[in-house]
Amino acid sequence: MKHLLRCGAALLALAALTPAHAFNLGDLQNQLGGVLAPQGGSAPGPASASQGSSGTTAAVAALSDSEVSQGLKSALGRGADIAVQELGRENGFYGSSKWRIPLPPAIAKAENLMRMAGLGQQADNLDLAINRAAEAAVPEAKDLLIAAVRDMTLQDAKGILTGGNEAATAYFRRKTEAPLTRKFLPIVARATDKVGLAQTYNRFAGEAAQFGLVQQDQASIQQYVTQQALDRLYQAIGEQERAIRADPVGTGSRLLSKVFGAALGH
What gap in Å lies between CA 176 and CA 240, rounded to an integer? Predict the structure, then answer.
């Protein structure tokens, strides 16, 4: 895929530098030839969940259903709220070296060539637009995240409590990713549609994705930014979850201290 994206980047740069020339998929296939051959290797599988000790199991079993349910709901609500506040504000993405969304790989690989041709401002405009779009979209996640917490069952809560450092984050993703994608897309579109380079990218990437030159989740600026924003949102929630699990006493909540302390075997 890295080879394919490099080729896609070169073609995007060519399109930006010579807009009068049409994008020709037939020529593209002829030029790339062997590069389109299947690439070896496979993605690593997920890490196995850690197994709790018998002491931990006994401590968790001693908790009442109410303690487990309310403790998990409190923890998830806290983590989601902090994550939304951190990202869903001006410069939550753009002003953060940690959360800033980079240009799509196809554009990033062509960025130096664009700057040499005097098109650097277009890249800068898109960089700002995609991050401002994410900042505008994230606050829309709050209601759905709250609903996911409210609708959590006791079985969900027990599974999250004993399910490892990112079990709550996985729960949020499972419950909210599809509806949040639908919510984010039009917000991102409004923020990026007026940027000329975004339109050029969408025209190129939509066609190139059909031939495997661009990954499907990068087939448009809207898809790319939406997925990047969601990934960062869940990552931020995951950091809050890990912090609570590592130091439940530090939350200042007796309930969280008791519930997550039991999960730690304390």
Answer: 18
What is the per-residue pLDDT for 208?
A: 74
Is residue 104 in a domain?
Answer: yes
Per-residue pLDDT of 117-141, as tens digits, reads 887 888 899 999 999 999 999 999 9
- Per-residue HEC secondary structure of the chain comes to CHHHHHHHHHHHHHHHHCCCCCCCHHHHHHHHHHHHCCCCCCCCCCCCCCCCCHHHHHHHHCCCHHHHHHHHHHHHHHHHHHHHHHHCCCCCCCCCCCCCCCCCHHHHCCHHHHHHCCCHHHHHHHHHHHHHHHHHHHHHHHHHHHHHHHCCCHHHHHHHHCCCCCHHHHHHHHHHHHHHHHHHHHHHHHHHCCCHHHHHHHHHHHHHHHHCCCCHHHCCHHHHHHHHHHHHHHHHHHHHHHHHHHCHHHHCCHHHHHHHHHHCCC
d(CA 111, CA 103): 9
Q: Taking the model in full, what pTM does it have?
A: 0.76
Interatomic CA distance for residues 182 and 131, integer angstroms: 18
Is 75 part of any domain? yes
Tokens describing residue 32: 């790339």
* Count of beta carbons in the 10 Å neighbourhood of residue 21: 9
pLDDT tens digits, one per residue of 25-62: 333 333 333 332 333 333 333 333 344 455 567 877 88
| Number of compact structural domains in the chain | 1
Q: What is the rounded CA–CA span in Å between residue 96 and residue 119?
A: 24
The domain containing residue 197 runs over which residues?
2-16+63-263
148 domain residue, yes or no: yes
Report yes or no on 227 lying in a domain: yes
